[in-house]
Amino acid sequence: MEIISLLNNETESSSHQDQFAIDVLMALSSSPKSLSSKYFYDDVGSDLFQKITQHEDYYPTKTEFSILDQIKDELPELLNEKVIDIIELGAGDGHKTSLLLNGFLDADCEVNYYPIDISEQAMQQLGENMEGHANLHIKGVVAEYCRGLRYVRDHSKNKALVLFLGSNIGNFDRVQSQGFLRRIWQSMEPEDYVLIGFDLKKPVDVLVRAYNDSAGYTRDFNLNILQRINNELGANFQLDKFQHYGIYNPVLGAMESYLLSLESQTVYIEKLRHSFEFDAFEPLHLEYSFKYLESDIHYLSERTGYEVMKNFTDENHRFMNSLWRVSKG
Ligand SMILES: C[S@@+](CC[C@H](N)C(=O)[O-])C[C@H]1O[C@@H](n2cnc3c(N)ncnc32)[C@H](O)[C@@H]1O
After folding, report:
1. By the 8 A CB rule, do 259 and 286 touch?
2. Separation of alpha carbons 47 and 7, rounded Å
3. What domains can be seen in the chain, in order of their start residue?
4. By alpha-carbon position, which residue is closest to atom 14 of ligand 1?
5. Ligand 1 atom having least distance to the Cα of 167
6. In this predicted structure, which of 16-20, 145-149, 161-165 has the lowest mean pLDDT?
7. 280 CA → ligand 1 middle, Å
8. What is the DSSP string of 71-109?
9. Which residues form a coiled coil (predicted)?
10. Could you tell me the CA-to-CA distances from 150 to 38, 67, 132, 186, 187 in Å, in that order?
11. Span 79-105, mean pLDDT?
C-alpha cells in the first residue's frame, strides 16, 4: 500500500514533534489541564486501542461492526456508482472498513480507498490488514482529518463517500462537530456521501462499563499518553501517580475521561524546558465522547448542509450509522 505523509508540511516551520510539544505546552498551561486525544495513538496506544475494542465491556466496535455487516450489500445499491472514492477519516486499523470495501467490490464497483489517519503506526497496521483485489486501489494519507481530505479531493474528482466511523465524531462537542462537518462539506461536491458512526444515548451503567473495562485496557491506554510525552518530549511523568477516571456527564450527554494526580507533584518536560505543577487530585482532561439521540443526528445534518438518506442501527439501539448526502444550493 502506498502511504504519503503530510504531517511535516502542515505548518511551514514546525515538524510534527514540534507541533506535539506546542500542543502539550498549551494544554498543560490551560485550566483545567488537558491533553488532546489525537495523541493517544503511538505503537503502544494503537495496540491498547485494539485490545479495548475486543473487550466484552466495550460495545461500540462490535456493535458498529454488526451494523456494517448488515448494510455492506445495501450501501452499494443505494449509491449506485461504478467508480467511487472511499475516504476514511481516522481510519485506525481499517478492520470494520474491509466489510464495506468488500461490499462495493462484490457489486463490481471500482474502489479507490483513501484511509486518512494522524497516526503513522495505525496506517502501517491498516496496510498489513488490507487484502488486495484487482478493483481496489489503496493510498494511505498520514495527516489531520481536514488536511488529508483536501489533499485527496485536490487529486481526484470521482464521486466520494467519506467514512467517519467508530464514534470519532463524539470527540467533538456539539459546536465543534458542526464546525467540523461544515469543513468536510466545503471539500465535497453536491451528491457526494458521508457515513458517520454515532454512539447513541443509553443506560449509564453500560456506558460507564465500556469506558472502565475490567481488564484495565482503557486505564493503560489513557496513561500511555503520559508515557508518550516521556518518550518523545523527555518528560518525567510517574504513571503510578495518576489515576484513570471515566464518568458520564448527563448535562453534556458525554463520557468524560480524566487522569487525576494522586498527590501534589511537579513534572518536568525537557523538550519544553518547563515544569508543570499538579495539585493533589487535580484533573487532567483527556477526552469527551458525546452521545446522541436520533433527533440530534437529524438536527446536525440540517445545520451543516447534508440530508439524511438512511439511518442504520442495531437491535439494542446502541449505535447508529447515518448515511448523508451533501446538498449545495
Ligand atoms: C478511536 S480510533 C477509531 C479508529 C476507526 N475509525 C474505528 O472505528 O475503529 C480514532 C482514530 O482516529 C485517528 N485520529 C484522531 N484524531 C485525528 C485527527 N485529528 N486527524 C486524523 N486522525 C485522527 C487516531 O489516530 C485513531 O487511529
Report:
1. yes
2. 22
3. 32-55+204-290 (no CATH), 59-202+292-326 (3.40.50.150)
4. 90
5. 8
6. 16-20
7. 32
8. HTTHHHHHH--SEEEEEEET-TT-TTHHHHHHHHHHTT-
9. none
10. 19, 29, 26, 9, 6
11. 95
What are the grid coordinates assigned to 150, written together? Answer: 483536501
Return the amino acid letter for 143: A
State the amino acid at position 147 in one-letter form.
R
Task: Convert the pLDDT of each residue in 263-281 to its tens digit.
Answer: 999 999 999 999 999 999 9
User: Is the shortest distance between the CB of 213 and ligand 1 below 6 Å?
Assistant: no
**In this structure, what C-alpha cell is assigned to residue 194?**
458521508
Cα–Cα distance, 1 to 54 (Å, whole number): 26
Q: Is the CB of 41 under 6 A from ligand 1?
A: yes
Q: Which helix (H) or strand (E) holds 244?
A: strand 242-249
Of 118, 180, 217, best ligand 1 pocket probe by most atoms within 8 Å of the beta carbon: 118
- Residue 12: pLDDT band (50, 70, 90) is very low
Give 92 Cα–ligand 1 centroid separation in angstroms: 5
**Is residue 90 within 6 Å of ligand 1 at its C-beta?**
yes
Atom of ligand 1 nearest to the CA of 197: 8
pLDDT in tens, 193-224: 999 999 999 999 999 999 999 999 999 999 99
Do 272 and 286 contact (CB within 8 A), yes or no? Answer: no
Q: Is 165 in the pocket of ligand 1 (CB under 6 A)?
A: yes
